[in-house]
Amino acid sequence: MEIAGFNIVTWLAATLVMGTPLVLAGLGEFLAEKTGVLNLGTEGMMLVGAVSGFIAFVETDSQIAGFAVSMLAGAAMASLFALLTQTFRANQVASGLALTIFGVGLSAFMGRPYEGEGIQGLAKLHIPLLSDIPVLGPILFQQDPMVYLSIAIGAAVIYFTYHTRAGLVMRAVGESPESAHAMGYRVIGIRYLAVLSGGALAGLGGAYMSLVEPHLWVEGLVAGRGWIAVALVVFASWRPGRVMAGAYLFGGITRLGFELQGLGVPIPSQALSSLPYIATIVVLVILSRDRTKLRLNRPASLTKPFFATG
Amino acid sequence: MMSLKFEKRPEPSRAMLYAAPLIAGALTLAFGLVIFAALGKAPLNAFYVFFIQPVNSLYGLGELTIKAAPLILIAAGLTVGFRAGVWNIGAEGQLVLGGICGGTVALVFHGVDAWWVLPLMLLAGTLGGMAWAAIPALLRTRFNTSEILVSLMLVYVAELLLVYLVNGPLQNPEGFGFPESRLFSESATWSPLIEGIRMNPSFLIALGALVGLYFLLSRLYLGFQIRTAGLAPDAAHYAGINASRMTWLSLLIGGGAAGLAGVNEVAGPIGQLLPDISPEYGFAAIIVAYLGRLHPVGILFAGLLMALIYLGGESAQIALQVPDSVTGVFQGMLLFFILAVDFFVNFRLRMARRSQEGTN
Questions:
Q1: Sorted alphabetically, which keywords does the UniProt record give (chain B) (predicted)?
Q2: Cβ–Cβ below 8 Å for B323 and A227
Q3: Chain B contact for A288, CB < 8 A?
Q4: Number of domain units in chain A
Q5: Distance between CA atoms of B162 and B158, rounded to whole angstroms?
Q6: What tens digit of pLDDT does each residue of A82-119 get?
Q7: Which CATH architecture has domain B65-324?
């Protein structure tokens, strides 16, 4: 499967790897937005998750500890955001920005002593029999465990959102917090839960970068993926399956830049590196053109603070 | 049973509105000292190193204006947008484009000793920042695309563009392959206002921007339209205020200010093009605008405070061996606290009887 030195199978296999942090962070953002909370702090939560997971792994030599700590760190960051926007009813856009600025600084600060530390990545898990299938095997069944786990989390989020009672309540809170409140659901509590779960997933997405690919810590490691994750939720018109598809699309584009660089294509490497950001803008433009459709898909209470009355 | 309860104030508290930034500053300071203590540094000494030492000399005060100038200028520009409800958060990218455009002029006229070089650079940089901000403005008004995400994505694109340029077309041909441009000629750089310190006219430009902002917001009908569009978009619509026009205006003013700040950086303290020309001034300026209550006087003080935090971070790195990224931690905390304390402008804490809950 090679065209002029470009191996499509390797590229597609790497696409899943590159898409995984976006899948995790995008699903996290999806959960928060579905309850009506726009959290622009994803970039900051991913960075703090990435650095915390990295430090935990270096100190304990346990990958599981690394991932667990990254989720806790992401959730802790998210709790600051939830406190601001849900308890103190602060503006969600400004609070999300604050969380990102804080996360950028905090992660750089925490990670300074660990910068340049070499660690072992995560071994690939070859699934017996399936991994031997030609073409599909190497793409789908020779991945690391976190790729499988992220797909499982995606499936769980889809099932939860559309096939459980709790998922229905979550959607109700996002569409009409007043009705949900009138029915006796605790709107603020549910939003806290969604934002915290989203933070844990963003943290895990960050740790996928620091512990798996490219498994290192440098300042600003996440490089805008948190923002792309926020954009993905809009692209996906607030549907988790489409969030995942979008994440792999962007993973593929990012990886394509690397592959072309490797082939010595005479395009400046910076132009190739800017592909995912430009692609984000292009896709956003295409998908937000239809105002009515955007408004129909968007959780009706998005960014609006909720005050319980009566 | 008694419990604490938040209650909406009948009128927003003006006292709280003005006290909030001070409370936020005090809380940031308190938490900062706790952080230093946790790192095993004596808090009082850390306080001295961070907040006093950087500015206890004339030279230090000059440095303060060097850092405050871009923060105040950009915050003044962004305030127009924030008042109108337009979220330009890509000022960092607009700053970089300003630096690129102004720097290109400086390099094209390298060695030309004429008075017009610097003014031309300032013009080019301002237009460059405006052009970069025009992209989200166009996409917002024409295709309904989120200006938040577009302006932010363009920050990364601008930064990559600058890295490309200093490694390619604008690289110093005699620079042994280092990723940097030539040093600008004297005619393309700001000279210090006072001999011996680095303070330069960019600080005066920033002050001028604050005066301009004051007149725009309080004296002009346009300012009234901007405020109405932000506070009550529907009312603004019925009053015939054109939302697209507000979006364009906000982004062009914000982008132009950021672009101008970018030229001031490359023509001032930097003096050439480097792969990285800003320690995230474009993001810190968002905090300055908020901390300054979106008001010119507030922005002046907030800008000076934020500049001090930058200097303090550098000072702490040298004297206390604390990474200077502690600056970012302080900046984030400051914005957190101001957002949280703002709640008490509209709400107050009250003791309430449980049995009466729900009656207010």
A1: Cell membrane, Membrane, Transmembrane, Transmembrane helix
A2: no
A3: yes
A4: 1
A5: 6
A6: 999 999 888 898 899 889 999 999 999 999 999 988 89
A7: Orthogonal Bundle (1.10)
